[in-house]
Amino acid sequence: MAHKKNGEKESKKWVLMATARSPTNIAVIKYWGKRDETLILPVNGSISVTLEPSHLSATTTVAVSPSFDRDRMWLNGKEILLSGGRYQSCLREIRRRAEDVKDEERGICIKREDWEGLHVHIASFNNFPTAAGLASSAAGFACLGNVTLFMCSFCPCKLMNVKEETTELSSIARQGSGSACRSLYGGFVKWAMGNKEDGSDSIAVQLANETHWEDLVILIAVVCSRQKETSSTTGMRESVETSSLLQYRSQVVVPRRLIQMEEAIQKRDFPSFAKLTCADSNQFHSVCLDTSPPIFYMNDTSHRHVQLCFLIYCIYVHGEIRLIIGLVERWNQFEGTPQVAYTYDAGPNAVLIAPNRKVARLLLQRMLFYFPPPSEKELDSYVLGDTSILQEAGLHSRKDIEALLPQQKLKQMLHPKSILEISTILYARDQAVVQFCLVVMIKLC
Ligand SMILES: Nc1ncnc2c1ncn2[C@@H]1O[C@H](COP(=O)(O)OP(=O)(O)OP(=O)(O)O)[C@@H](O)[C@H]1O
Ligand SMILES: C[C@@](O)(CCOP(=O)(O)OP(=O)(O)O)CC(=O)O
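Above: inputs. Below: predicted complex with adenosine-5'-triphosphate.
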């Protein structure tokens, strides 16, 4: 055990702590389905973009002390059970790799073999909605999704002085939550599905670092921050069991898309990147619909709000999801080449990617025109994150938004087929019932 100069009683008093912050990531080629539930091995590879941690990240502190009698964890201030297999796998893997730790100043010396008998207390906070389909569990189980269990493994690693390469760490994180393994790197990351039964080749690798495609701007429309009804883990299990589309997707479609996406990223080819991103998000949600019973992640919000009796709100939220996709699709179609990409994880929140600040300004103007802040909300609590684009777009107050006119080009896009949809949006705008926040992030982590 740890040895302190003042004897056994004193030695019970020490506490060692370490804190780490981890970003979330958003998949542009989605991971959906496991071939091994325990080791968390996917049925296909995936590619993601790691987000700037100041806006979407999990911060985890781990403490270890001989006075702790069991492992405990608090998530966003609330104690949660650590008995789940994933948390246990992570802690076991980390303890297995732990090494001697010496803190001479405080007289602490922990031998390798001592770690088995020591307990940890873990406290983690997400600076964004938990389990709402935003983090790919990556930042929190990622963080979002879970991406978050990765935190549990990362922190203790630091604390236990684990001398592992990042690839090893990514394998530990993966066993917490699949998407979490991609959050160990910035920039663009690929999680290779691997073929080995023990999962040793199912690891994340960085495709391009955070400076490779700096012009990209990511804007997240938070339609709903409530916890979704079907977790990603349950949802993908049901898809594997029942969806034949998933089999086709994982065996035929994704392998091809991974190659095309890697190429698009290397060449900074935004049109190809956008086409692949939108198509893959749409196919992922089609797989969810092809699951029995079907999973409606994009509609989840409406079900919850009906239960909570926010009926009007839910109707418009329900509408928005399709409207955001419609808005982007029409814009892209009108320009003849993709201007903006959209992607949705297992939830209704839209992740929109613009190729540069100029397009991002236009996108923000359009979004705010169609979905202005509700009357009781000020602009600075409606648009969060790096708001410099807001300033560049000349949007300083509610008045500036009210003065926005639909851009000329958008007017021209109003051919008869889309009139109905646009007038629904305008109706929503007039009613001011649409409430959601925009998070603008301009730098990839
Ligand atoms: N900071 C965190 N530390 C540890 N575990 C976390 C953390 N944040 C979230 N989790 C775990 O992840 C679960 C949420 O995962 P889930 O996959 O359902 O949602 P998500 O990650 O927000 O969405 P998605 O994976 O679709 O992006 C939580 O219930 C919790 O168990
Ligand atoms: C839709 C997704 O966000 C699914 C993420 O799933 P999780 O990583 O949360 O699942 P588990 O491995 O069961 O924890 C797509 C993605 O991030 O690739």
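The first helix runs from residue 7 to 11.
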